[in-house]
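fyi for ur records
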Amino acid sequence: MSQNTGSDVGHRLFDEIPRILKLWDEQVRVALPSTRNLNKLTLTNSLPVFLKMLSESLVYGVNLTKEHDAKDISKEHGEHRSRIPGYSISQIFIEYDILRKAVFEVLECETQVGKRERDLIFDFIAKAKDDAGAEYVSLRPVETVSHTEELTKIFLQAPIAICVLDGPDHIFTFANPIYEELVKRDVIGKKVRDVFTEFEVGPFFKLLDSVYETGSPYRGKEMSAFLEADNQTQEKFIDFSYHPLLDFQGRIKSILAIHIDVTEKVMVRKENELAAKKLASEQLRLSTILAQSPGAVAVFVGPDHVFELANQIYLSLFFGGRDDLLGRAVRDAVPEAEEQGFVALLDRVYQTGEPCTGTEAPVDLRQYDSTMKSFYINFVYQPLFDTEGKIEGIIAVVTDVTAFVLTKKALEKSNQDLLAQRDLRVQFVSTLSHDLRTPLAAAKMSAQLLVRDMSDPLKLQMISAKITQSLDRADKMIRDLLDVGQINAGTKMSLNL
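which gave:
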C-alpha cells in the first residue's frame, strides 16, 4: 500500500468530509443511544468546520492561527454538548474517539497515511477532545461532582466487587465492601503490588499496566487467583473487567476494576464435567461389556425407544445381520414389534420404571433379506436411570429359546400320542378279555354237560363239537392278539395268500 504526502492526504480528507461525517453519525448513534433522537445538524454541530480545519492543516501545516481557531471550534462543541440534557463528558470523549477512527477508516481504505500525517491527525483530534471536555466541565462542574458522588454511592451498594486504581502504580483510591471481603485485606492508599504478591495475582499486574498504557479496556473470564488469608491459600476464579477512567482533558487517570467471584460456579462446573467424564467412561465400559456379551443385548434410549446399542449377537440372531437399526426408534425400525405388543411393554417400563419379563414369547421378525422369521424368546426389559434417578432408557436382554420350545412341543405331542395308544390298549384288552371269556365259558359249560351225561353218543358228539368250536374261537383271538403285539414291536410278518 503506497503512502501519500500531507498535501494529498489533506485534499483527500477535504473531499471525503461528507463520507466521514456519515460514517461517524452511524457509529455514534450506535455507541451513544442518547444521540439517536438528535437530528443530523444538531449531532454534527461544528464538526464539519473542524474537519475542514484539519484538512487545511494537513495541506498547509499547522500555525498558531489555525490552532486558535480549532480550539474555539472545539470549545464551541463542548459548550453545545453541555446544553443537551443528560449528555456527559464521557460521551464527548467517545465522539472524538469515533471521529478519529472514522477519519482513518476512510483515508486508509485505499492508501496508507504516513507517520507524520498520522501523528498530526492524532494530535489535532486529541487537543480538540481536551478543549471540548474542559469547556463542558467549566459550564457543568456541579453536575460533574454530583455525578461522581452518585456513582460512589452506587459502587458502595453494588453486589459485586469494585475498586478504583489511580495512576501508573495503581494505587487504591476506592474499594467497596464486597471487594474488601473478597481480598480480605486493607487496600486504600496502597499500591496494588504492595497489597498482593506476584504468586497471588501476577497476571493481573500486567493486564492493569496494559490498560493504563493503551487506554483499551480488558475483560477476563474465570481467571485464577491464589489469595492468602489466615495463613491459608485459596484459589479463586474471577470474572473481571478493567475500564480506563479519563480526566477532564481526556487523559487516563485511573482504572475502574470490576470483579465477580465465580469460584463456586467454576467448581460446580468442574465437578459436573468430572462426573460427566466419569459417566462417559462408565458408558463406554458398559457398551464394551454389552458388545462382547455372549447373550443378545440391546439398549433403547428416550420415550421413543431409540436403538442406542445392539450387540452383534442380537443383530445376527434375530435380524439376520441387519445394520440399519441404530439411531432409529423401535416402532420405525421394527414395526412388527409394535404390532405384536412389544413396544407397548417398552412404553410401560419407561413410564413406570418397573422391569418386565417374558417367557417363551412368540415373535415374528423381519430379516436382512426382508423375509419374516418366527422365534420363541425369553426377555427382560430393565429400566436404566440417570444420575438424578430419572429413567433415560431400557436395556433388553433376549434369549432365543426357539429350539427348546419346538422340542418341548414335539415331546408334548409324543406324550399325547403315547397316552392315546395306552387308552386304546386298555380298551383293546378290556374288549379282548370280554370276548375270550365268552367261548371259554361256553366250552366250560359244554364240558360240565359232558360230565353229567356221557351215555348218549349223539349228544356226546354234539357237545364235543361245541367245545372244539369254542376253543378254536379262543385260539383265533389269542393268535390275533399275538399278531398285534408283533406289529407294535415292529416284527416283520409273512403274508400268506
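Residues 402-452 form the longest helix (51 residues). thats all i got for now
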